[in-house]
User: Fold this.
Amino acid sequence: MASLVGSRVERKEDKRFLTGKGRYTADINLANQTYAIFVRSPHARASIKKINIDKALKSSGVVSILTGKEIADDKIGGLIAGWAIRSEDGTEMKCPGNPPLAKDNVNFVGDPIAVVIAESLAEAKEAAEKVEVDYKVLKAVTSTADAMNGDTIHEGIDKNLCFDWLLGDRQKVKEAFDKADKVISIDIINNRLIPNAMEPRACVADYNAASEEITLYTTSQNPHLSRLIMSAFGNVAPEHKLRVVAPDVGGGFGSKINVYNEDIVCSWAAKKINRAIKWVAERSESFLTDIHGRDHVTHAELAVTKDGKFLGFKNETIANLGAYARVFGTVTPTYLFGPCATGVYEIPAAYTNVKAVYTNTAPVDAYRGAGRPEATYTIERLVEKASMELGIDKTELRIKNFPTAFPFKQTLVHTVDSGDYVAGMEKAKQMADYKGFEARRKESEAKGKLRGIGVTSYFEACGIAPSAAVMSLGCGVGLWESAEVRFNPTGQVTVYTGSHSHGQSHQTTFAQIAADELGVPIENIDIVHGDTDKGTFGMGTYGSRSLAVGGIAIVNACKKIVEKGKRVTAKMLEANPEDVEFKDGEFIVSKSNKKKTIGEVAFACYLPGVRDEMKSPLPEGDEPGLKETSFYDPSNFSFPAGTHIAEVEIDPETGHVKLEKYTACDDFGRIINPMVVEGQVHGGLAQGIGQALYENAEYDETGQLMTGSYMDYTMPRADNFPEFNIGYTCTHATTNPLGVKGCGEAGAIAAPPTVMNAVIDALGGQEVTMPATAEKVWKACKNLKKSNAKAA
Amino acid sequence: MKDFNYHSAKDSKEASKLASSSSAFLAGGMTTIPSMKLGLATYKDLIDIKNIKKLSGIKVSGKSVTIGAATKHVEVSNSKDVKKAIPSLSSLAEGIGDPQVRNRGTIGGSIANNDPSADYPSACIALNATIHTNERKIEATKFFKGMFETALKKGELIEAIEFQIPEKSSYQKHPNPASRYAIVGVYVAKHKGDVNVAVTGAKSCVYNDKEMSKALSGNFSSSSIDGMDLDSSEMNSDMHASAEFRASLVVTQAKKAVDAC
Assistant:
């Protein structure tokens, strides 16, 4: 039987997605359901003096209106930060309360204050407009760079500072810088982004008064984790009385990791009114209230010798958390950022210092790449600048500082098990025709255009993550994953996974893995996920962990099935279990022609006492049935890496940047399905290029979101991209049995510095902030013209 | 969206009769419907004019192209007659919005709305258009009055737009990267005798740039406007483009348009 792992198996999920048969949360309608509309703060910062719901209550169709007072009276808990980060001085981070409905203060535009529940959506909307809120408007703090100088947003949190964190050794870095021939320094802004999943958030909450059970259908990347948080911290219901279902989910990119206010409020309110409640975000609500991503202000320095060896690295960053610290809000700018900020290089001394600040903006949390795009942008912009200042070819300078042996003990935290960075670089250069660039630059110049080339070599730490490691760093949960593999008596297989697919194609790739492990045809394997009532507890999908953690749990559960199968076969065929081999779905007694198929074994496990044989095929100590579970806790992160090369052409008259070529050469370890990986790379690149050239979330000084719709927030479209040139080098991970590493975030991590390095190269080294919009580039072109004229 | 009465008019007369101070004509609805959904506009009555046969269609004579008000952008962009008579008008239509918008949005709706960054108003100015309404004929230069403001009176309905066929013409736009509306769009048309340089997106309302028109009427070459330093004091300035950048783009796009003629 040919192996399915490694082949372009067509996606099992496409039949329903492409024929409109997907079942998303908004498609779910329950009998007698009501509709919720949230009354939200129009102010970025205000105290609530009074809420008057009298008029709204009289509005037609209103079932109930609930405010922060009721939710506080019922002792429903607020939203939480999932990682406790300690400051350099040893103090614990400072987090404000974040009630599901604001009672006393609102802290960003969109902060929910009340929920209006009515018989129809139109009636709920109409009534919501009649809720009168009397605010005392306060001065908002919106700037990341100046947040520490602004008014105190949360009582008791001085300078709006959540923590002032250090990773690394300042003294060693100082010594390294003292020895340097040259110090390259850079000031950068990592622009704020809005994830914009295709499906807006939604939830449908139901209450069964007889079983006292709440069921919440919601757009979540991790239903079990949501249930845990809502139960343990939200006090919504005990876990066994709360079922969370995340059905088809149309994209998350991290924005659907969090439990949101609406999940808690609708679940609580459904029980209160004893009816189902449906809420579906409008796109403008998504812009305002989904978590945002990135938003760093960084000063970084690289100490180098004159021949280009890196000696030391400093990184001083202010990270915006927004109004509140959420689930991955505090880890994203620390442990997901700092360790990767030294990049793929051997740098003897380094530190990263992060001041995380609160502002009156939407909460900032993990968004595709989470911390690693910010880290990669910092080091790769710095290295590119070093290459310009030292006059050393950008690829040579990188290679000079690559590690030469693996495992590679990276400066700050990680030990990278495998990789071959030089091979990746060489292949990328070949794919991109790096050598031919100067000729292409001349061709562009002849047309009056400016051409630039940019390189990024990255690694990232994903496949999160070993529980002991992350819990020692402050994580509130272990990051293992579970799988359960069940055979039916007639031989089909159901695989329950704790991972969640919201576009990742698990139904196909996980089935490929199970098919290979069990020797069962892929069409006889179903993947089930997304329902806390089905399968074992799982930690969900983020941090490119589904395959490297969830996939391995499936492999391990399959291996347990095979082990039991060997015992059963031995009993049935009167052989020693040690003599039974398993291959391509058959258990074979070695050196004999005796064998049983896995289907026959499964059948025997469920019918252990067939009349003719009058004896059980089950060995002593084995129970009937064929079902195995695995909880897999990885021994290390996984470390995808690669080199990307971009080429841009700029029209100096209009500042228009055309991305001419984009080459990505990645090492994801073993690839399960190349077609799915290409999709992941394309999507990541689109978001990374989007950050570099198009996307930007902008608040004005009063805290109003200026880019609150697609009229002003530039979502890139297909015509913004060239045909992507994609290739791989595959060094297998040594820390898991599949040798896999993870591919979901790489594009978003590598693309921003790759594109910006190309833009800045075209502009003769002039710094431009992301996104490199036409006007910024036009201004830089004018400066370039002036300085060229002077030089002439 | 608030409740409203929907009427489908069978002819201009009925449409006009149904109009009141709290009504709107509905053609493609590409601006009207989103505005209503966002609560920015409310109407008691929406009078649908899409089904009025007389308002759709394209006629080409020796001197002009006349397009019915309810003609969709896609019909203009696909019309062989328009492509032959005024190719720049066809390509302008092809560059409006996205396929969904082009399959519903109409030329009359665009002109009646007079969005400061819409494409069609520049075509009207550049191509010396005459706006035919159910009451009168209005010259384009007198039709566009200001931001979202036209010479139309309440109940007055655009029936057709008549464009003069130029010797040469081209429309070039620098789109807003998000909305793809024009940050600056410049329509250059060379007629017998004079040249029009109609600019959209740059100011609160479409206009004919006299300085460039004059220069190009004298010498129809992009070199005659190269480096022209336009006054940016009345130009729009927003997060997508400053007034200074717009002023520069007007010249750049005009040069491109002349070169493309």
User: Anything to note?
Assistant: The two ends of chain B are 45 Å apart (CA to CA). Chain B touches chain A through 17 residues (CB under 8 Å). Residues 184-260 of chain B form one domain.
